[in-house]
Design brief:
The structure is a single chain. This protein is mostly beta strands. 0% of the residues lie in helices and 53% in strands. It contains no helices and 11 strands. Strands 2, 4, 5, 6, 9, 10 and 11 form a 7-stranded mixed β-sheet that branches. Strands 1-3-8-7 form a 4-stranded antiparallel β-sheet, with no helix packed on it. The protein is globular and about 40 Å long. The termini are far apart.
Length: 112
């Protein structure tokens, strides 16, 4: 079992940046791919980005490619999502995911 706690959300103007962080507890954190998902108002939850357990492979949704960067620090049990050039359509609750474990999410609001 892995417990996940997201932080770093907030209100930002379009074009701005935010850095989300996911703190994980549990011994198996470093063994698995970590992912970020998001759920916008009235929308289904969607994949944002993933990073392999060693950090060597990353994948991004087309909608965030070139603007978001996922990273991890296995020594600190954290997975971060750097979000640049934010757009109003990035407004969502962002969730950290490892296997079938989910955090409660952190809200990102991008104003136009």
């Amino acid at each position: 079992q892995v417990q996940l706690v997201e932080s770093g959300g907030g209100l930002v103007q379009a074009g701005g940046s935010l850095r989300l962080s996911c703190a994980a507890s549990g011994r198996t954190f470093s063994s698995y791919t970590s992912r970020w998902f998001r759920q916008g108002p009235g929308k289904e939850r969607e994949f944002v980005a993933s990073i392999s357990w060693r950090g060597g492979n990353t994948y991004y949704a087309d909608s965030v490619k070139g603007r978001f960067t996922i990273s991890r620090d296995n020594a600190k049990n954290t997975v971060d999502l750097q979000m640049n050039s934010l757009k109003p359509e990035d407004t969502a609750v962002y969730y950290c995911n490892i296997r079938d474990n989910w955090g409660k999410g952190t809200l990102v609001t991008v104003s136009s």
